[in-house]
Amino acid sequence: MKQIEEQAVKCLFYSAEIVTLHTVMIHFTVTKEQVCPFVVEKEGTTVPFSIKSWQEWERGAIAFIQFDDPLELGVEYKLRQKNHEQTHLIKVGRVVRTEAFDQQYVYNGELGALYSHERTVFAVWTPVATEVSLLLYENWHTLEAIEYQMKRSPNGVWSVSLDGDLHQYCYLYRAKVNGKWKTTVDPYAKSVTVNGEKGVIFDLKRTDPASWPTVHPIPPEHTIIYELHIRDATVYPGSGHHKKGTYLSLAEQNTCGPWGESTGLSYIRELGVTHLELLPVADYGSVDEANREKEYNWGYDVVHYFAPEGSYASDPYDGVTRVKELKQLIAQCQRMDLRVILDVVFNHVYVMKESPFEKFVPGYYFRYDGEGNLADGTGVGNDIASERLMVRKFIVDCVTYWASEYRVDGFRFDLMGIIDQMTMKEVKRALAPINRQILLLGEGWDLETPLENDQKTTLAQARAVPFLHFFHDTFRDAVKGSTFDLNKGGFCAGNIELKETLIASMLGHEAQFDRPSQAIQYVEAHDNHTLWDKLQFVFPDEEEEVLRACHRLATAIVLTSQGIPFLHGGQEFFRTKHGEGNSYNSPDWINQLDWSRRAIYAADVEYVKGLIALRKAHRAFCFSTFSEVNTHMCPLKTPSEVIGFHYHHIAKWGPWDEMVVLHNGGGDKVDIRLPASGEWEVIVDGKKAGLVPLYTFNGHTVSVQSRSSMVLYRLNE
């Protein structure tokens, strides 16, 4: 049994908690035989009970007492030894993790500060609180609050309505839970003041951009994702941006780098990707917003899920500014035909004990193991219990809010394997009326959390959730090499151990997925080493040109494979983090996009642009079904260091009917026999790529240079 914390004062009752709606567990400081008669009181009235069973613990006895009628939460129950006045509070405990609690206190209405010009209604769910009040502040820097008592409904929602226009007022909640008063920000707060100190009430309509662009949806298989951190994108001294590291900085157009080359959004649009995936923009706790230039974080330690992060705003003190400026950035991206995906973190919270979740309903929002210990599958101290009804509601409410209010085009779920499938299905169902084409993707890693395997949203369960897209680490490791052994390269570095696995992965991995586009094909992302840094470990003594060739090969494999290609920002100009593999809180000089490399490696950037243009021009690279893959793609018989595919009867999807794609991971030139002789136009080789033929080849055998790709199509006879 879990160790109980020692109390400072010895008494008959050591601790007592409600464990089910009909059961209380009492720890005594004496043995069963020494326990004196006692009573249970609710607001001074004695409540009848029976003793169900006894156990022992190291300091005395444990009694489980039973009640015929369900215990009423939201009021205080106390123990009292007969003929004594002193009472002992019975705390609300693990009852909150029972199905009966979930069913009795589930609430389907709106929560948060519901603003209108005439009045604002405040609603917060905390069925275990015995008193709740609203603290209202005139602005962010007001110290004294006006306090309003809130009223409780049977399902545990406390509410109060205030007349008048409260635009830009601030607020907190004060709740009495288990006998202690706790003050906290509303978990549904739509914005917060500097460092999340207070929630902000405001008129959302006043935060909209002058106009929202019309976004034309595309099928998932046509997606090409580019991952970016708000600050990384512009903080480099030579990026050409003003107000560096902010929403507005990234929204700037026509920015130029040190040699006049495009940077920022203008550059990303030129690259040709379809979606911009932003690392978390919800308010997180690890950067002091009042001193933001001196601190850095990726943002995976979210505190306030509905509110934008303030360190990216021009004024972090004003809660409305961050909302306006993030909306401006999203609208600007969409005007440039860049759809926006938000990275969301519903697997853990920053500091569990300080979170509004734990203050309002202790023990409910998080998973516990059979011994009563917090689960830690995430590796950061807590796992969010998405399967509980009000946690699921919170997640669904949150993503639908971002989708409708910020008009985003997709969500990337961090550590999605922690989240249960039913919640993800509810997310999809709730988003459909807002944006039927919205893209949902995530990390399907199987982590050790107390949830049945067939309920987890993992790669192994991908077929059960066909609307989701999964980061395909099998593909990544086969191309790039081991994530955990830096010296071991993958196919792009000449390692052919996983060649057959890679071939299956490049075809969309039918054994794993319901359709090819479920696979997110990538070789690097924000976490772990960049491919460039990895290659420097694999080839410590090789010339730079060898590393560049391997890198181009890897990116060519990503962009010519079935599935959804994913590029890490700066990958195309060999992004480096100077050997750092976990840069979540590293300084700017490690994390920034070094825009000088965009100029230095301009030819390599053009190579990637050409591959993207090719993929968009011929949709045989992005089949929607495995039937199409199996009918029109055939792996070629090749030497061990080469992977090849023959595409045939593909005129329906693009400008030519027959195509061959070859990837040589070896260190030597290799001759490959083509499916047929005749005239072939080469449009991709090791250094150039695009739609304009590089040269015409006539014959049956073609030479593929070392560490390079080749794409060629056959001219019609």
From TrEMBL:
Domain Glycosyl hydrolase family 13 catalytic: start-end pairs: 234-615
InterPro entries registered for this protein in UniProt: GH, GH13_cat_dom, Glyco_hydro_13_N, Glyco_hydro_b, Ig-like_fold, Ig_E-set, pulA_all-beta, PulA_typeI
Organism superkingdom: Bacteria
One MF term in the entry's GO annotations: hydrolase activity, hydrolyzing O-glycosyl compounds
GO biological process: carbohydrate metabolic process
Transmembrane regions: none
Protein name per UniProt: Pullulanase
Family membership: Belongs to the glycosyl hydrolase 13 family.
